[in-house]
Design brief:
three-stranded antiparallel sheet; 13 strands; disordered N terminus; endopeptidase fold (from Nostoc punctiforme); elongated; 57% helix
Length: 467
């Protein structure tokens, strides 16, 4: 896998941006197809043996005519299919266009669903705010009622105390006479009690009782409001969940269709890479072989960027490596028994398998290419800068034909100097065969990928170094 000028950006990007990336990659693929016309074949140029045991697969084409469209548009559109490097049939440009149209339709649906979800979210949030306010008011009212009840009890006790004091001090003879007159009804008793008690205390009791009644009425009203708002919140929550489920389902469908589109582009790129590898092998001049190798490298970059790790991407990488070999480029080989430090570095890198690529990252939250190699070799007690170019300059250089596990391979993909580094793993690890045999590396490739084992890449190779 290798970084390409058309960057596979963050996965959190909007559907429109995701579609734009795929469209840009498709355009790159079309450019590769236009440039990939094989040069005149003659006697094959001299070439070194390829590191891959897989030979180039002949690219064949077939032409069919599509049926009349359902809307009555003219039929007879030519559809070309090609055989990719893995022996399967790659999709036609018409199939890719149809998948792109499906992506656009689903994205429009997701956009509408997202608008609905945003509205439901806002209604739900407003309901939460309203209910929270009502609950706070209800709590405050309940606290006020408790205070009023406490105050009422105190005032009643004061009223009793004042009445007893007035009686024992003979402060109101007329009132005392009324007491001894033995009132015959509860009303007379209450009236007499109030006459004997302090008038201001009696008024306080009446006022507190009125406040208690008002607060009780307010509490009853708030309880009704709380019940209504709870029901509204449940309704908004259900609508919100339904909208979210619909949006998630559409997102899943979109991811599936985009996966199909990426695979179609990768398959077509693999077919182009295989054709370019054949052209490089059959080239009669070094210049023609190098041109074909560059075309194969570009097609392989498209395949690995949109569908890294797939059979089509692996096939495209193999074809690009074969083309580079035919053009007199680099070959890679295992140099023998690994060192303890090299194995420690490889195991250090393996701790980060599955960690996402993050530009400038150097932790389990995310790593970039040189961050991974720096952290990995730290496990072997070797320190280095967080820079691919600095790492290449810091350590002794070794032949790519005699690599050992832990060796670092450096690349210049942008044409402005070293901008990528990977770690060589080799054919076996801990007694087990590795995924790509002697071509196995481990790397943090680019944004949108994770640390993983991958196939070594010949295009853009600068050199190897051993810490």
């Amino acid at each position: 896998m290798v970084r390409v000028a058309v960057v596979w950006a963050e996965r959190s990007a909007t559907p429109l941006r995701r579609r734009a990336r795929l469209a840009a990659l498709a355009c790159s693929l079309v450019m590769v197809a236009l440039m990939a016309a094989p040069p005149t074949a003659g006697a094959a140029g001299s070439s070194t043996s390829s590191t891959s045991s897989t030979s180039s697969t002949t690219s064949t084409t077939s032409t069919s005519t599509s049926p009349t469209a359902a809307d009555g548009s003219a039929s007879g559109q030519a559809t070309t299919t090609t055989t990719d490097g893995s022996g399967g049939t790659s999709p036609s440009q018409a199939q890719i266009n149809a998948t792109e149209a499906q992506v656009a339709t689903i994205e429009a649906q997701i956009s509408q669903q997202q608008n609905t979800l945003d509205q439901d979210d806002e209604l739900y949030n407003q309901s939460v705010v309203n209910l929270t306010g009502t609950q706070a008011s209800l709590q405050a009212t309940s606290a006020s009622i408790a205070t009023v009840k406490y105050k009422l009890a105190i005032e009643r006790n004061n009223l009793r105390s004042d009445a007893i004091t007035a009686y024992t001090n003979d402060s109101a003879s007329a009132s005392v006479s009324q007491i001894f007159a033995a009132p015959t009804s509860a009303t007379q008793t209450r009236d007499l009690y109030q006459k004997i008690g302090a008038g201001s205390v009696a008024l306080d009791v009446a006022r507190v009782q009125a406040g208690q009644r008002q607060l009780s009425a307010t509490r009853s009203k708030l309880l009704v409001e709380q019940k209504t708002e709870n029901a509204q919140l449940d309704q908004e929550s259900q609508a919100r969940q339904s909208a979210a489920a619909a949006s998630a389902a559409s997102e899943a469908t979109l991811a599936q269709v985009q996966g199909t589109l990426a695979q179609q582009i990768a398959q077509q790129a693999a077919a182009q890479a295989a054709a370019a590898a054949q052209a490089a092998q059959a080239a009669t001049t070094p210049a023609a072989a190098q041109q074909a190798a560059a075309q194969a490298s570009q097609a392989a970059q498209v395949a690995t960027t949109v569908s890294g790790g797939s059979a089509a991407a692996d096939s495209a990488t193999t074809a690009a490596n074969q083309a580079a070999t035919s053009a007199g480029g680099v070959t890679f080989g295992d140099g023998g028994e690994p060192t303890a430090a090299g194995l420690a570095a490889v195991h250090g890198a393996m701790k980060y398998l599955g960690v996402p690529y993050v530009y400038g990252g150097a932790s389990f939250s995310g790593v970039d290419c040189s961050g991974l190699t720096m952290l990995a070799w730290a496990q072997a007690g070797v320190t280095m800068d967080h820079s691919a170019a600095d790492q290449y300059a810091l350590f002794p250089h070794v032949s790519p034909n005699a690599l050992e596990p832990g060796d670092l391979l450096f690349y210049d993909f942008g044409g402005d100097g070293i901008d990528h580094v990977v770690m060589y793993v080799g054919p076996t690890l801990d007694g087990q065969a590795t995924p790509y045999g002697a071509d196995t590396i481990i790397q943090a490739a680019h944004t949108g990928t994770v640390v993983e084992f991958d196939q070594v890449w010949a295009g853009g190779f600068v050199g190897a170094a051993r810490p």
